[in-house]
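Re: your question about Sensory transduction protein BceR

S., sorry for the slow reply, the queue was backed up all week. Below is exactly what I fed in.
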Amino acid sequence: MPYFDGFYWCNQIREISNVPIIFLSSRNSRMDQIMGMNMGADYYIEKPVDLDVLMARINALLRRTYSYTELEEPNVLEYHNVFLHIDTNTLSYLEEKIELTKNEFLILYELMKQKGAIVSRDEIMRVLWEDESFVDDNTLTVNIVRIRKKLAEIGIKDFIKTKKGQGYMIE
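Result:
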């Protein structure tokens, strides 16, 4: 690294986050290893690296850091005071609440799950219909128009953005 070394960056990261950190270094002195671990690294691995061992350490660290078995789906997704209620297939904004059809709900759920990212039309269609072969592309457009109309009725404008030739997004 040209200006700062891994010890510096590890210290900077640890000031703001507890993300897993693995040192992968050509430095091989015991002092470097001790310093890396004391700065907050989870592992210090010397080059050359056995890729199988590296992958095993990464997987173990991720398993320990992010206990996937304990993750629970939230009951509500929220973005800019728009609440999508997963248990009831409803959407609320301020004091207003609307009922959503199954397809409207699935479209909003996918877009809100991936807020800030473009979700392709194909991806949304796969969520809605497992077999796309019988689905007309216009069907998705009709569903988006219906959602936008429902959102406008309760005061939400420009919530779903069309990204021409790419898909849709909530930003």
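The longest strand covers residues 22-25. The helical segments are 6-16, 30-39, 51-65, 102-113, 121-128, 137-153.

Happy to talk it through on Thursday.
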